[in-house]
Amino acid sequence: MTSSPYRAASAVADRPSYEPEPTALTDRERRVLLYLAVFGLAVPVVLTVAVLLLNSADPVTIRQFWFFVHLGSGIVIVHAFAGGLTTLLARGTSRLREAVRLASTASLAVVSWITVLSGTWFVYPGYRATPPPGADLDAYPQEYLLRGHLWLWHSFGMEWKEFMGWLTPILATAVAYVAYRYGGLVDRNARIRAVTVAFFAIAFLAAILAAALGAAINTVAPNDFLRN
Questions:
Q1: Rounded to the nearest 5°, which phi and psi values hold at 115?
Q2: pTM to 2 decimals?
Q3: Closest by CA position to 119, among listed 158, 176, 175, 153
Q4: Residues 110-120: b if buried by 16+ CB within 10 A, e if exposed
Q5: Mind listing the pLDDT tens digit for each residue in 203-222?
Q6: Alpha helices in the chain (DSSP H)
């Protein structure tokens, strides 16, 4: 039994088009926006760190500097998420929406990597340092928590903060790649848009939960190690 040519033509017409829309950004424009988003992050991060440093009464140590970088880049995440999510949820296709989406998702990906890497390799080593015999535990937060009744803050809070935080750059990078590679197709294909929104929301939620755990731990554990 052969299918009707009209039915076949209708099936082809119903398939999603993977060709770029006339209003979509060109590959060159996408690359320029990507570079601007990545290198433009230096401005808000540097300004945020500068404000934190200027408000510090005592001389800033290397660990405090990287803590400010970690904190400042985390603040930028909120703004990047807001711009990206707005364009992902909006209906229709436009060059401006695609440009804002690409800049926001790329910014979130880059700044989340800065946040996680600075925290993991420059701040956390001081937190988990092993104290010598007889040392004041105020300079060793991990041991301070584990040796007292606050051990759950490390065993649960810090452990979850470490692993949960890595979800953000991984998922944000995936979303930024989709925004760069497929452009206007994200607006036209409901399935791609739904998956992208889900990944973007999970990435932001993981960042918020990790930040909340970090803030809570800072209230119960001493931070004298930052002055060394």
A1: -65, -50
A2: 0.71
A3: 158
A4: bbbbbbbebbe
A5: 989 988 888 888 888 888 88
A6: 5-14, 27-40, 42-54, 62-89, 95-118, 124-127, 141-146, 151-152, 159-165, 167-182, 185-188, 190-220
